[in-house]
Amino acid sequence: MASLSQMEILLPALRAYAISIASSRHDAEDLVQDAIERALRSDGRPARLEELRPWMFRVIRNLHYDELRKIRVRREYLAAGKRLSDGAGATPDVARDILIRRAFEKLPPEVREVLFLVDVMGLKYAEAAQVMDVPQGTVMSRISRARRALLRLVEGGATEDAKAMRKR
């Protein structure tokens, strides 16, 4: 197992690498700190310094890209929310929105998952496949079936609502 003294030896190189990929020194310091914390908690870290060095670089790199993905998803989520709120002022169809949300909630969790990732969050099929740990073709067939199932529920719900309105 790598020791704390080995981490101290690597610290200048880890900082230099983190500074080279991060947007600020503060972010770089956070990356190094998080990487060292993960390494010290990990039972699988290399024992030899020659193996530990590239391993730690990978940890820093992975932490950095994880953070970039989080930022991108948040930005896309906020942009989608803004588009929805901007569009809502034009011609709000609250009843239709409620009907779609209720139909969405009636779907099984695995169907909701693929619809949420692709249609709500805007992930590409390959990204959704990676998240769900399935082949891209599986995502494509699942999203197709999920959209048809949601449409059936929405159209069925609209028919039921129309029938209920006529009964009044």
TrEMBL record:
Gene Ontology MF terms: DNA binding; sigma factor activity
Domain of life: Bacteria
Keywords attached to this entry: Sigma factor, Transcription, Transcription regulation
Start and end residues of each RNA polymerase sigma-70 region domain: 10-71
Statement: the UniProt record of this protein carries the keyword Transcription: yes
Any one Pfam family match given in the protein's UniProt record, by short name: Sigma70_r4_2
Record-linked SUPFAM superfamilies: Sigma2 domain of RNA polymerase sigma factors (SSF88946), Sigma3 and sigma4 domains of RNA polymerase sigma factors (SSF88659)
InterPro entries per record: RNA_pol_sigma-70-like (IPR039425), RNA_pol_sigma-70_dom (IPR014284), RNA_pol_sigma70_r2 (IPR007627), RNA_pol_sigma70_r4_t2 (IPR013249), RNA_pol_sigma_r2 (IPR013325), RNA_pol_sigma_r3/r4-like (IPR013324), WH-like_DNA-bd_sf (IPR036388)
Residue intervals of the RNA polymerase sigma factor 70 region 4 type domain: 99-150
Single GO BP term: DNA-templated transcription initiation
Family, as annotated: Belongs to the sigma-70 factor family. ECF subfamily.
PANTHER family: RNA POLYMERASE ECF-TYPE SIGMA FACTO (PTHR43133), RNA POLYMERASE SIGMA FACTOR RFAY-RELATED (PTHR43133:SF25)
Protein name in UniProt: Sigma-70 family RNA polymerase sigma factor
